[in-house]
Amino acid sequence: MYTAQPKKLLILQILDILRKYSDENHRLSQKEIADLLEKEYGTTVERKSIKRNLMDLIDYGHLIEYTEVKRSTSNRATGNREDTSKLSDFYLVHDFSEGELRLLIDSVLSSRQLPYQQSQALIRKLEGLASQYFSAKVRHIHPLPESVPRSQQIFLNIEVLDEAISKNRQVEFFYNEFGLDKRLHPKQDKHRRPRRYVVNPYQMASTNGRYYLIGNDDYFSDVAHFRIDRISEIHLLDTARKPMKDVAGLEKGLSLPRHMAEHIYMFSGESGRVVFRAKRFLLNDVIDWFGTEISLKAEDEENVVVTVPSVNLQAMRMWALQYALYTEILEPTELVEGVREDIRLALKNYKNI
Q1: Which pTM value belongs to this model?
Q2: N or C: which end of the chain has fewer CB within 10 A?
């Protein structure tokens, strides 16, 4: 088998040294690069070769910054003074800043669907996109051990769904729910057999720490939401997916920002205009949940009336219970009655109070 000589790998070794040991706050001289080459790879090389390969990397498109110091030296052969320059303080500008990587790592940590081992492996990969000094800063960060079983095939699910969406094709899968044994089991059909869902996939979206598929169960005519970590045994079908215009709620297409604002809990069903009264100190939460398209009207020093142009009514009913201490639904009437009934039923669970 052919083995490349170390000098032929020199340019890759130098690039690897820069990736691992340099950033804006940790710059390397040509001598330091030479020392690291010898330490890491046993490669001994002259500074001229290091400089030449560094310039080749820059010419190839790698963003490598350095400092150029002009100096005047005497030519020993002629005795004349000559202007020369010395290059030092080399560092690789990484594709992601430390702040960006930390944000991505925090996103992985806040995910409630990735298994512990996959979260840990993904964080290590993100660390590898920066120098070793960043890895040292985040070495103490670890995902929490699992308290809930997670799907081990979530990345496979995402890949299959991504292909299906891009190719306008249907998918088939089992959709699971927890049983008393605290394990996931496929939902059953009317004959108590595991039901295989045939679904028209349109978009994937993340909300509340979960990853969802927005689509349509081919058996029905409206929009459906599926937790991607609850999907198993997924298969890409050869059949074309149903056009959005044939799905109730998607007749005009899917605007993801609007859809996410309306479906705060990713429930399916009818959306509509909702008006509610809220305490002023709740405004941060209200805007976090419903965005800035809402209308606000001061009622008095303590209360504000909020109008949400369109929101999933079932999700709003759940939200109203969550914030029942500080809010009151005013419109529509059927939602008001629904929340009242929920509170009456909830009170029965505490009848001994």
Answers
A1: 0.64
A2: N
